[in-house]
Amino acid sequence: MRAVLMAGGSGTRLRPLTCDLPKPMVPVLNRPMAEHIINLLKRHDIREIIATLHYLPDVMRDYFGDGSEFGVQMKYAVEEDQPLGTAGCVKNVEELLDDTFLVISGDSMTDFDLSAAIEFHKQKQSKATLVLARVPNPVEFGVVITDQDHQIKRFLEKPSSSEIFSDTVNTGTYILEPEVLRYLPDQEECDFSKDLFPLLLEKGEPMYGYVSEEYWCDVGHLEAYRESQYDALHGKVKIDFAYEEQSPGIWIGENSSIDPSANIEAPVLIGNNCRIGARVNIEAGTVIGDNVTIGAEADLKSPIIWNGVIIGEQAHIWACSISRGVRVDRRAHIQEGVTLGALCTVGEEAQISQGVRVWPSKQIESGATLNINLIWGNMAQRNLFGQQGVTGIANIDITPEFAVKLGAAYGSTLKLGSTVSISRDQRSVSRMVSRSFVAGLMSTGVNVQNLDATALPITRTTIPTLSVVGGIHVRLHPTRHDHLLIEFIDEQGINISKAKEKKIEGSYFKEDLRRAQIPEIGEVFYPAQVLDAYSHSFENHLNIEAVNNSRAKVVIDYAYAVSGAVLPLLLGKFGCDAVVLNASLSQTALSNEERETLLNELGQVVEALKANMGVQVAANGEQLILVDEAGLPIRGEILTALMVNMMMTAHPRSTVVVPVHASSAVEQIARRHDGNVIRTKASPTALMEASQQDPNVVLGGSGETGFIFPELHPGFDAMFCIAKLIEMLTVQERSLAEIRTELPRVCHKSYTMRCPWTVKGALMRYLVETHPSDELELIDGVKVIDPKTDNWVLVLPDAGEPLVHIFANGDDRAWVDNALREYRQRVQDFIDQEQGVEAVNA
């Protein structure tokens, strides 16, 4: 006997699982549904199978081939142009059906007794026998009514609630005589239930219904898909398992490694080559595909996990469906009913709310909460902008497509015909992204002044001279060398405000993008003498005579960055004796280890040449590390204090701007010079804005961010800082070592610890509520201060990661160590308490 396996369905209601798979190839217990049906046919000695295909036909043909590996003979009939319907596709293979044959759906789960149904068909001498099942809710199915002799009397295809007249429904499994196909037209779409069976009734052909008591589940929607797996695991349907039953209710494939501390509750199915980490909790009903990795302490409550999935440590995965190749990072939380399409990435501590569907190849950013279906676009993010701009992995997150869309989103917030500048560092990946950005801007009718590869301080200086409304700078991230950083700059050269960031984000996420007409498309210009403008400003704000008369010898390590093409020209112009190291341009970023090696070499060169100082320039001309005469590095808080000391000595009663977490040495130095200190949020934008707002500010920033000289331009500038250092050392007739000995002795320590996104706000509220208000400073994070001394503790949430930073500052090292230890414990206790509450609520 031959069977026609109907396998052409696209499974619209199962999307996103069926975005790249035909419905019959969706796995149940790690085998395609169609394979379970073929195994059922084999059990009843039906081994000649004709599969009718339409949607993604090659997937099934490639999997089953000629059927020999599965113990059957497979033939295929593909509906090339249009679907022919359930009956039309069978009519299409009529020449292969010369005897009684079976029609069965390839996208349901069942263990029908087909032999009994065939015997019933023959006994009744039926022309068409329908295998029927009783279901509690027949609304989604074709209802059938039969008489006492099981002869069919009436059909109703998918009735409304008021039309239901029986709970006996058509399962899509039929035993037919070949002559019934003569009633069907050739190459036309037609359906068994709507067209053929009513016609057979009308013609008086004998039609019977065989009511099966066996299991049947039409896997028509995502909830039914999960339920069919649970039913199979609990033995409600007889199927062939792909793996050995290692212990009652636990099936495990070959070469799978399970940590002894993992807790597994039967029934569970685990595929081949899986790796289950320590203390993983796997509850009953869980199905795990082949080549799956599950990190330590993950919590799996009955999810359906396909092949090649990676689950991070402490992730919570509850009664959801996860398609092939998905990556779920640590502490992510995927709730019940979620469906993730193939190759998605769920970031660290992201949350996907109940019932959400995510289409293939999407990215959910770390810490994001997704509560709507993600169908279009590539990413679900908490936001685009971080502490400093837009950042992501080069050519993975920050791709040409992303840059085009972001450029169009930015351009859409500007007036038609506006002009912006764009610049970049020397790397090819930055060129690629900046060109894509230019295309996006032009598409919205915005013109572009392209400054090409240049140091960021030059961009900030040039922007106010170009009559542009803003600018963009693309570069490798200063501290994450596989990441790109895109910074947006306003018309003054300062990073744009939060309000403008939100406007660009809104345009990007809503896809509210302006499309200019052909005559309105933007143009690209290449301004000349960009370096001249910077050089002129440089000269105007420097004591040229002091620099020219300086006999200082300086060694400068440019670390293969673009500033190496700029600063030697300027220093040469002022007659400086500068020894240049590593000034050639490089496409690859230096690792931290390589940078430290160069810093050690710089120290050795300074000592050997008896130079006055050495400087290593970083971050596209923004940041620097000093090396004193003895070859010892000066960086971080010491560098901040040293620069404040030198500028306050040169400009008594002036003001400096530093981030909230900078050492209190700054205040002590300011008191010596009758000066003022303004503390700001830790973000670079806040430092730039504060440095511009007060006309008395002579220095902004820190050793960590770089230094701002507001009279020059609003940004950080390591190149001008070097020239200014030469000037001040000459005028003040001091060495770096001498200045270093004058600095206040302050102990300043920090510690970074993990803190979930969902706990950060509650942690800040807890700290505010548990301290007297006169001891609190709330510039950024929560700073607990001692009003009588310069001692303080700052708890500062990270802007871009699920982290919190704790800083302790004081004159006494023991006090700092105790304070840091105490607040680490307080923060950890609070996080543990909050997560315990979340677990109870969940």
Automatic annotation (TrEMBL):
<dbReference type="InterPro" id="IPR029044">
    <property type="entry name" value="Nucleotide-diphossugar_trans"/>
</dbReference>
<dbReference type="InterPro" id="IPR005844">
    <property type="entry name" value="A-D-PHexomutase_a/b/a-I"/>
</dbReference>
<keyword id="KW-0396">Initiation factor</keyword>
<dbReference type="Pfam" id="PF02878">
    <property type="entry name" value="PGM_PMM_I"/>
</dbReference>
<dbReference type="GO" id="GO:0031470">
    <property type="term" value="C:carboxysome"/>
</dbReference>
<dbReference type="InterPro" id="IPR005835">
    <property type="entry name" value="NTP_transferase_dom"/>
</dbReference>
<keyword id="KW-0808">Transferase</keyword>
<dbReference type="InterPro" id="IPR056764">
    <property type="entry name" value="LbH_EIF2B3/5"/>
</dbReference>
<dbReference type="Pfam" id="PF00483">
    <property type="entry name" value="NTP_transferase"/>
</dbReference>
<feature type="domain" description="Alpha-D-phosphohexomutase alpha/beta/alpha">
    <location>
        <begin position="383"/>
        <end position="513"/>
    </location>
</feature>
<dbReference type="InterPro" id="IPR018357">
    <property type="entry name" value="Hexapep_transf_CS"/>
</dbReference>
<dbReference type="InterPro" id="IPR016055">
    <property type="entry name" value="A-D-PHexomutase_a/b/a-I/II/III"/>
</dbReference>
<keyword id="KW-0648">Protein biosynthesis</keyword>
<dbReference type="GO" id="GO:0016740">
    <property type="term" value="F:transferase activity"/>
</dbReference>
<feature type="domain" description="Alpha-D-phosphohexomutase alpha/beta/alpha">
    <location>
        <begin position="533"/>
        <end position="631"/>
    </location>
</feature>
<dbReference type="GO" id="GO:0043886">
    <property type="term" value="F:structural constituent of carboxysome shell"/>
</dbReference>
<dbReference type="InterPro" id="IPR011004">
    <property type="entry name" value="Trimer_LpxA-like_sf"/>
</dbReference>
<comment type="similarity">
    <text>Belongs to the phosphohexose mutase family.</text>
</comment>
<protein>
    <submittedName>
        <fullName>Nucleoside-diphosphate-sugar pyrophosphorylase family protein</fullName>
    </submittedName>
</protein>
<keyword id="KW-0677">Repeat</keyword>
<dbReference type="GO" id="GO:0005975">
    <property type="term" value="P:carbohydrate metabolic process"/>
</dbReference>
<feature type="domain" description="Alpha-D-phosphohexomutase alpha/beta/alpha">
    <location>
        <begin position="636"/>
        <end position="744"/>
    </location>
</feature>
<feature type="domain" description="Nucleotidyl transferase">
    <location>
        <begin position="3"/>
        <end position="232"/>
    </location>
</feature>
<feature type="domain" description="EIF2B subunit epsilon/gamma LbH">
    <location>
        <begin position="250"/>
        <end position="352"/>
    </location>
</feature>
<keyword id="KW-0963">Cytoplasm</keyword>
<dbReference type="Pfam" id="PF25084">
    <property type="entry name" value="LbH_EIF2B"/>
</dbReference>
<dbReference type="GO" id="GO:0016868">
    <property type="term" value="F:intramolecular phosphotransferase activity"/>
</dbReference>
<dbReference type="Pfam" id="PF02879">
    <property type="entry name" value="PGM_PMM_II"/>
</dbReference>
<dbReference type="InterPro" id="IPR005845">
    <property type="entry name" value="A-D-PHexomutase_a/b/a-II"/>
</dbReference>
<dbReference type="InterPro" id="IPR036900">
    <property type="entry name" value="A-D-PHexomutase_C_sf"/>
</dbReference>
<dbReference type="InterPro" id="IPR005846">
    <property type="entry name" value="A-D-PHexomutase_a/b/a-III"/>
</dbReference>
<dbReference type="Pfam" id="PF02880">
    <property type="entry name" value="PGM_PMM_III"/>
</dbReference>
<keyword id="KW-0597">Phosphoprotein</keyword>
<dbReference type="InterPro" id="IPR050486">
    <property type="entry name" value="Mannose-1P_guanyltransferase"/>
</dbReference>
